[in-house]
Amino acid sequence: FRRLSKDYELYTTISEAMIYGSLIRLMTRRLAS
């Protein structure tokens, strides 16, 4: 159970990073145009 929660934390961190990355990419593209 402990390992499962650890993997879940890692997954949420990665998904958050991907969301932020796509947001930043959209913002930079909008600023560049």
Molecular structure report:
This protein has about 35 residues and is an all-alpha fold. Helices cover about 95% and strands about 0% of the residues. It has 1 helix and no strands.
Can you lay out the helices and strands and say which pair or pack?
Blueprint lengths: L1 H31 L1
Separation of the first and last Cα atoms: 48 Å
Global Rg: 14 Å
Fraction of residues in helix: over 70%
Which structural class do you get from the secondary structure elements? mainly alpha
* SSE pattern, N- to C-terminal: H
Number of strands: 0
Task: Count up the helices.
Answer: 1
The largest β sheet comes out as: none
Mean pLDDT across residues: 90
Shape: rod-shaped
How large is the share of residues in beta strands?
Answer: under 5%
Point out poorly predicted stretches: none
What's this entry about, in short?
The chain is an all-alpha fold and 33 residues long. The protein is built from 1 helix and no strands. The longest helix is centred in the middle third of the chain and has 31 residues.
List keywords for this structure.
mainly alpha, single chain
